[in-house]
Amino acid sequence: MSGAGGLGHLAIQYAKVMGLQVCAVDIDDGKLALATRCGAGLVVNATRPDAVETVTRGTGGGAHGVLITAPSLSAFKQGVGMTRKRGTCVLVGLPPGDFPLPLFDVVANGITIRGSFVGNREDMAETLAFAAEGKVKADIELQSLSDINDIFRRLEQGKVAGRIVLDFLGAEAVRDTPEAQHAMTPVRAPA
Q: Is the model's pTM score more than 0.85?
């Protein structure tokens, strides 16, 4: 999977719960550390010149399925390159611009390219069940609404590893409730 931050760290956990082996790719070492805590068995920094080759070697010929959550055209290109013969590459991130496909490689290797914007009700029920069972937990950072400009700056710079939750009531009012304690539990790799 390419993009191990906000959506990616959740995707890693869902994949692990479903019994899949996960390789996480990102440009930020902090997000790769989060990916490791979430259960990724192989992590690769996408800025390495040999990132595609490293994933191909580490997965024994390329990934069977590649999920690209990063909103980056270079992540899309790398993701297709990391997909093995007859594998599937799913595009979720929405970078601006057009995405040229390496047509020869896609056709010769029988790679399926899919886009995915949202899931269906069955997907939602399954994901909520995983969360209710404690198998998937969001890595959250509680921030005050007054910090919104700084939050947007950090998001634009890719400096948020997991998810930010805006605190509208004041952290002191809710921090000690059982719900808040459960929500702020650090991410652990699913068993």
A: no
